[in-house]
Amino acid sequence: MLQISELTKTYATGDTALSEVTLDVPEGQIVGLIGPSGAGKSTLIRCINRLVEPTAGQIQLGRVDLATIGHRELRRQRRRIGMIFQEYSLVERLTVMENVLSGRLGYVPFWRSFTRRFPPEDIQRAYQLLDRVGLMAQADKRADALSGGQRQRVGIARALAQQPELLLVDEPTASLDPRTSRQIMRLITEICVEQRLPAIINIHDVPLAQQFVQRIVGLHAGRIVFDDHPAALNDAT
Ligand code: ADP
Ligand code: ADP
What we know:
- The chain is an alpha/beta fold.
- It is 35% helix and 24% strand.
- The chain has eight helices and ten strands.
- The model has no long low-confidence stretch (mean pLDDT 92).
- Bound molecules: adenosine-5'-diphosphate (2 copies).
- One of its GO terms (molecular function) is ATP binding.
- This is Phosphonate ABC transporter ATP-binding protein.
């Protein structure tokens, strides 16, 4: 599904954040990315959707090499990739429903009536997603009226609204308390299993990763230093 080969990123500052990283993620697999601060986790996630430009290597999503395609093609390919961020990045003045539908749109609309442009099946699907993440009753509330956990649930529904083939998740629980963090990780990983959706989750909380993912990849100084079942991590350390 996703095949990353010899991916290298050297920033303009001369920092090499990734050194020839090779990683295959098969369909339906949930990968937890761990490692100390500065290991290259964010850079890896951001190279996959090209928020960061790779210096060398391939990022094959199905038949497309995301690392080398031009910007027009990139816009199309990004629709295949759902993103869930640490800071939710919801549009505050829009409702929950409008935020979810903006995922289908692929960009943030700045006018209020944009939901009318969606066919009924898109609206219905958005309601199904809100139901799945437990926010049906909040559909018409403004995003800025929600708690942190609720906001991340909107982020999850929005990422899924675009019907992605791959989910990239960057520190989804960094702003949440431990109990809410577990709920959010459970929700993300359950949905990935239900939909056979492969995911890469950048998560610095190792016990949380171990509890919910199927495979752990450990990065250190831009290289993969661990790649195994979560249980094997205890033997390695
Ligand atoms: P992590 O997510 O594991 O904390 P990062 O990918 O953020 O690691 O960073 C990896 C390395 O790349 C670090 O040395 C960091 O300082 C460097 N780095 C990250 N972003 C930039 C940037 N925009 N410009 C220069 N160096 C960067
Ligand atoms: P994260 O929490 O994802 O690891 P950081 O807090 O390390 O991110 O970095 C925040 C922002 O600063 C990111 O956009 C990252 O690319 C950038 N950054 C990180 N390290 C450097 C660096 N050494 N030089 C320039 N920019 C950096």
